[in-house]
Design goal:
elongated; about 35% helix; Aminopeptidase; Alpha-Beta Plaits; 11 helices; single chain; 6-stranded mixed beta sheet; about 400 residues
């Protein structure tokens, strides 16, 4: 059997791909202005779907097959679709071909009307506008990188999957099953959130677990017979102190009691209280240790007659700093060095869809969009001068990972 000829390695180096990226910059800016002009908040499904329509058309033109997944409403509010685009390459898995996932999201944190009130602007090399960095700039960088590879004829991968979610900014409650289904079995995942303000990539993200802690006491008249009561508010207060005291017990783990509710009248011994607790950790083990400590504290309430129930509401796994992720970072650094770009990576406490993919055991590298910052604020910005170099590195990294044998 005759082997399929491969695209020469030098043809998919960052240096070779950079002129293609530079030639596409003006189109990138025009497309970015178009996407930023679409209000696509997480609960603006029509706007999200417009972004997905546009993305699907571009990817279909590059030979991707398109699937749209309608996801359930969340708390009675509909979100947009999930977009899954697939393109098979020439490399068989038995011959070193790999399945590479590109991960982006179409939603923003902004309400309808923001795009008109604060439209896309470009001053010098800095672009502003809602979602310009998070994540429309990154989404568009992924599309541009795929276009560059198509131009170069670099399709030595088993499969390239482009996944765009509609609800990342609210924790992906509707799209999570689809994300996990698509990501199972892929070899590498590249998340297209924009790079940190100093240009760093993201090697790790903390995981998050949310807990509802309910304290049940016993009501009594606060003036006549308070001794017959069991004050849930007092027990909850002691619990707040105990849970906040867990901070510093384990490296990379934080515990925050963010919500406290108790009672409704001053003349009644408080019969019930509620705490909302968040645990963040850089490792799954850290979340497990903190959860055990919360349950241990709840098992011995300080106020006689009170009981405590702990219910875990949600768990977003950490994107851990693993040897496999470090190997991907090493590839990115090598590629960046070809064009004089020094790349480093950091850990962050924020979560994203990359966490869900990493939770399946898939190696993930994040922050592969252009350089941007001030996300979720009116000052959100994107450094358009970084677009060609970052897009060339992304394209070359896709090509290298797509045919890596390790």
């Amino acid at each position: 059997m005759t082997a399929t000829p491969r695209c020469p390695l030098e043809a998919v180096s960052a240096a070779a791909l950079l002129p293609h990226a530079e030639a596409r910059l003006q189109r990138y800016l025009a497309d970015l202005a178009h996407l930023v002009a679409i209000d696509s908040g997480s609960y603006s499904p029509e706007g999200v779907d417009r972004v997905l329509d546009w993305t699907a058309d571009r990817l279909a033109g590059l030979g991707f097959t398109i699937e749209r997944i309608n996801v359930p409403a969340q708390q009675g509010r509909r979100v947009g679709d999930v977009l899954v685009a697939r393109k098979h390459g020439r490399a068989d898995p038995s011959d070193g071909g790999r399945r590479v996932l590109l991960l982006a999201h179409a939603d923003t944190v902004f309400e309808d009307g923001t795009a008109a009130a604060r439209p896309f602007t470009l001053r010098g090399t800095t672009a502003h506008g809602p979602g310009v960095s998070d994540d429309k700039g990154g989404l568009l960088a992924g599309i541009t990188a795929v276009e560059i590879l198509d131009t170069a004829g670099a399709d030595e991968y088993a499969e390239l999957i482009f996944l765009v979610t509609p609800d990342e900014e609210i924790g992906s409650p509707a799209s999570r099953p689809a994300v996990e289904q698509v990501a199972r079995g892929v070899d590498h995942a590249l998340a297209l959130e924009c790079a940190r303000e100093n240009g760093d990539l993201v090697i790790a993200r903390k995981g998050v677990a949310d807990f509802l802690v309910t304290v049940t006491g016993r009501a009594a008249h606060a003036g006549i017979e308070p001794e017959r009561g069991a004050n849930a508010a007092l027990a909850a207060a002691h619990l707040v102190v105990a849970l906040q005291g867990l901070n510093g017990h384990w490296p990379g783990v934080t515990v925050n009691v963010g919500v406290v509710r108790a009672g409704n009248r001053t003349n009644i011994v408080c019969p019930e209280a509620e705490l909302r607790v968040e645990v963040r950790s850089s490792t799954a083990e850290g979340i497990h240790q903190a959860a055990q400590a919360i349950h241990a504290a709840a098992a011995w309430p300080t106020v006689p007659g009170t009981t405590v129930d702990v219910h875990q509401l949600d768990l977003c796994p950490p994107m851990e700093d693993t040897p496999a992720a470090r190997a991907m970072l090493a590839h990115a650094r090598d590629i960046g060095a070809e064009i004089g770009l020094e790349l480093d990576a950091v850990a962050t406490g924020g979560v994203g869809d990359a966490n869900l993919v990493a939770g399946l055991g898939v190696p993930v590298l994040d922050g592969l969009g252009p350089v941007g910052g001030a996300d979720h604020t009116p000052d959100e910005w994107l450094d358009v001068a970084s677009v060609p170099t970052r897009t060339a590195v992304l394209a070359a990294l896709i090509a290298r990972l797509g045919r890596a044998a390790d």
